[in-house]
Structures
1.
Amino acid sequence: MTENQLILHQYDISPFSQKAQKMMGLKGLDWLSVEMPLIAPKPDVEALTGGYRGTPVLQVGADVFIDNWMIARALDSYARVAPLNPRGPLEAAAVYAWCERLFIPLLHSAFATYKSQWEPDFLADRKRVFPDVDFDSLYIADPDRRSQVSAFLGEAAAQLGRGAPFLGGETPDSGDVHVWGMVWMIYSALPDLVPLVERYEELTRWHVRMEALGRGQRTDVGFQVAWDALRDGGFQPLPETPMEEPLRDWLGATVAVSAGSADRGVARGRFIAVDQHQVVIATTPLDGVEAHVWFPRFGYHVGLAS
């Protein structure tokens, strides 16, 4: 994969984009940033992915990786240095899921803090993306929500209190990245929660170490660079679909892939591979030009397209 450049479709205010940037920093990688619109429609990235519009999206040639779970796997394949998932897939998945749960009270805190300041179009978009959230009932100083955040942060501090500089030991990995992304969100947007971080010395010292790792070498480019990379780039080998895979009979059919946790759009494409790690669909973003779009099995749903 190293003959292709890394292109990250993202926007900087997203903690999930920040996580992907920090992965670049851990590995010391050069990468290109394509600015994604904050709200729908996002016609270019939706064409590239088959309809998914969440952030971030990593493009490597004609391969497109959705969600930081797949981005970490793709970056480990791209550059073997500083592996992001050295502790094995199950432990990596557990930390990933733990941070997804931590994101919920942080998200609600952000809505409570800023909903009255947002432009109507932005607020309407966020209500559409998160249809299960009752925006009208959220308020900043919710004791239960603050207690939840404190409990999550306390567990991270307890892990660091075991004596290692990073959550997994002597070197940082994706677990540190996922937790750091949530702490980054607090420091950058949720000032009322900062004291909950700074009550833990282990956590604040770890945060300084994570910040010092940087975000790699970034170059901002326009979407035309992505289209050129799509036309000129190749594909990485597809995973082998196991004979016992329940979705195997759908190979070759048009499927719809969606995230279970929020409305980030539905991607439609030809189903070309699936295993326990990923689902891969083929899309046609440009006439006669195909992309392979990689989704995690974790947290995403697949169905036959109507």
2.
Amino acid sequence: MGVGGTQQVISQLVKNLDSSRFECSIACLDGEVGMIGEALQQDGVAFHVFDRTAGFDRALISKLRALLKQQQIDIIHCHQYTPYVYGALAALFTGVRIVFTEHGRFYPDSYSWKRRLVNPVLGGFTHSIVAISAATADALGHYEWFSRKSIKVIYNGTSVPTADEAGDYFRADVGIDSEDLVFGTIARFDEIKNLPMMIEGFSKVHQKNPHTKLLMVGDGDERKSLEELVQKFAISDSVIFTGYQSDTAKYMAIIDLYLLTSFSEGTSMTLLEAMANGTCSIVTAVGGNVELIEDQKNGVVVASGDTAALAEWMSKLTNAPQQRRQFGEQAKRTYEQKFSVTTMANQYATTYEKVMA
């Protein structure tokens, strides 16, 4: 339960389920509660922490099975594939219902002969399989050999943090002038996010529009190489690396155009935040992005890796404030109709009740 989109979803789910109907605790398999987990602990959520060993840890299955029996668990909800394997095997023949949610896919996606043998068997014992987008559901059927008909889509939801209006004082704090147009992203700095595409696209736009800034909120293994790329394009004065920030609302509030250039996505939590804030977004046509953003209706969609198209739309929207506003307003309506945390929690509550029926 460290920093990440999946962890945010779990946190939102635990906090927004009806506590008169559901009592939740969390099992972490890799020896740490994590930053998001610590916040939940302070709110009174119980945690069970295990130290998974390298390779396939058979002893962990026994420990999880003991926990299920001791705590009289009704449902084990496994988030991501590895926890699913351990959780499902631990729950077999105990009467505990198994729910599995896949939050995203690898890039590039691939087959595995082991999963070809194991997944149809595990799937037969699993009471509900959930994907966070239709694209993720298709991948589970195509690459993981689960029955596509048995997979339900529940989109991620988030409760958007409120923040005071970010005025000129905060923009100046992070090196942004009042007349600057701000492109931005909030992301884990990982290869799958394809942040070099974003930086290169911004470099093209900045040459023509010097009153632009790129705000990059986050951290990760790729940070050093990204900083080197910024230096290569000679745009260091216009790209702002904030590092990891726990309070992202004030940064989102000063972003004029949100960018998401990933190679692969499930349902991006930060994209949902941008939509909820009424911020216009440009995203790549991968995974759940195209289920959130309808091209030129509530944002813009470009092909993955098409830096020229990205730069072209960034330039167009730089000079089209009314269109940015229209896209942002429609994105906010889309969020409110389909992607609120209440909608997500209610759909999972219905899932839990069905598997217990």
3.
Amino acid sequence: MSNPFHEEHAPTPRDTTVKIIVLGAGVVGTTTAYFLAEAGHTVTVIDRQAAPAQETSFANGGQISACHAKPWASPGMPLTALRWMFAPDAPLLFKPWRWDPALWRWAARFLRNCTAERARVNMDRTLRVALYSRSVLKALRQRTNLQYQQRTEGILHIYRTPEEFAEGRETATQLMAMGLPQEILSASACAAREPAVAEIADLAGGLFSPQDESGDAHAFTLALAELASAKGVVFRFNERVIKLKAGRGVITGIVTDRGDYAPDAVVMALGSYSPLLARDLDLALPIYPAKGYSITVEIEDTAAAPTVSVTDETRFMVFSRLGNTLRVAGTAELAGWNTTLDPTRVEPLIRNAKTLFPKASSYTSVNPWCGLRPATPDSVPIIGRTPYANLFLNTGHGTLGWTMACGSAQLIGDMISGRATEIDLAGLGLERFSH
């Protein structure tokens, strides 16, 4: 039986320009559009919002964090999730008793990935994309001079208990073996690296990822959309995709509330909403939304706020300095496609920020936000071909959408252009879920 994902299904001959529609103008979709235009293709982006990056990419944690390649699905997670189940402010909120067949199917796949071997494989796949993407981002910044409040001082992970620090060192050892530089730091070395953490009383130690970065993903996406427009990309905002029409193994058209399209190729970059559109094509995408929260506060004492982006591994929260503001992000809520902001989930962010950096801000205005992160059961994105010859997927990046955006976009651009990709695509496509 032939493989429906085989390269023989490339939509066009090598070096042929095609008319491409990218569905979604978040950080992944916008970046994809830019790289496709850079390769010489005619590109249109369709998004239901009024501007780029208005949903999940709007106020995320602000990290380019290859260091977060450890998958959610790991041997200890089922017991941890069970312990958190009845705590409304837990880092991960999961209520399996809700009538939600999509969640149950996703959770069953998630549990199958909670073995040491699967976690190792999934970490390797995620890190492969993240490291590649980070290098593509740096090259992009060098040739375009993109500005988005970026900081290239690395990411500092702090641990509040010796047990968690020991587990972190074990993960760091694995990541280092896979090619990610990590420095293991004592509590005093953490304070030397980032003076703002010196007052944390229960600091057990930390890890430092010197080549990771931080910045404003929303500003990045807006700036890149402008560059894409200058290259001829057409953005169609306030337009909702109703369905994709298919026949004889190809997408024959796109129906929206403002008209129909007949593209040569389609890239689906709709994040958490990808499976809802794909199911009409009998494509089962194992993506479920993980609602994340953030607050953004004005920095009032610059010396008391971190300069290096900080990840609190004990509370599963990140802190990124964006100009004169501090972004605090974290938590995950598996509650379907519900975008309602729950103040109960915001409170832990405020409380932990006040605990760690009490003098950085008065925290009187916190600007709360939430967004749906497209999580796969193995924490690996879905990048590549589908059984439809001209439909490509660039979705399911979970909490690492911005981290992987540039690399994912380059991979899609190479595939559609008929070029060899610069990294191995094994284990990144939808076909891995067909076994």
4.
Amino acid sequence: MTKDDEFGDQLGDDRSHSRPPLSLRQIEVFRSIMLAGSISAAGRALHVSQPAISRVLALTEKRLGYPLFERARGGLIPTPEAKRLYAEVEEIYSQVQRVNALATSLGSEGEGQLKLISSSSFGQKVVPTALSYFCAHNRAARLDYRQVTFDQFVSFFLSGQADIGVSMSAADHPYLSSTRVGQEQVVCVIPRAHPLAHSEFITAEAITASSNWIGYPPNTPMYKALTAFFGANGPAVPPSIEVRTPVAAYFFAHRGLGPALVDRSCIAGPSEELVVRPIDPPAHIDIWVTRSLLTPLPLLARRFVAALKKSLEES
């Protein structure tokens, strides 16, 4: 024996550093043999033939450069190296099982977080109703919901703070996409002591002739939705109070500050202080769903959109 051979026996074979790593299939076969105790039992567990298991094991031991099992009459006895390797393999398999459990729960229970934003009007009834459907089928989901103004929509999406948004207008931005999913009727809410409370329906002339009424500035979605009601030139008499959202208009009317045109979705329920009247000609606001084009739409966001459509159809 040469000195090189002697050092080789004592220090090991340096060529082991250049050997290719084990494949996932080899690791799976090794684990199955450790659990089953024999090649034949491992083959049955993996639904492959005994010769196939033997070939994989032989290739694995050749690649490693040391035996994993000692052959005995009663089966296979793992070597100390095999026991050490098995401890690492089991840790990996535990992690794989956690990944599989998470993947299953994402599909069945909707685990994860949904980042949802909406106009304030839709936070009164439209979004809560849709969430009642959504949460019933996605019990493990967590929700981050915020009411934002329409001019905040773009920043929320581009900063990753929103997966899906519900608003009165389509987003005008190259990185956002909007789809109309429904409509809501516009009505007039009137303080009970106001003269218009006795009217069967409200016209543009009637509300602008009022001594005080609540309206919207021209750059708001609600103002644009009322174009058919007031005409292309807008109301003949400007409102005494301007607000930016129908929810604010509703609560101002609720406090007796004057009649206001709002969408039905911002009316949570009956009120002793207000009466609700239809308007002539009728007007509607659109319900838009907006998403970012920069990232794929998450599963929870797709499920919320489905719940929203279902709730709108049933209402």
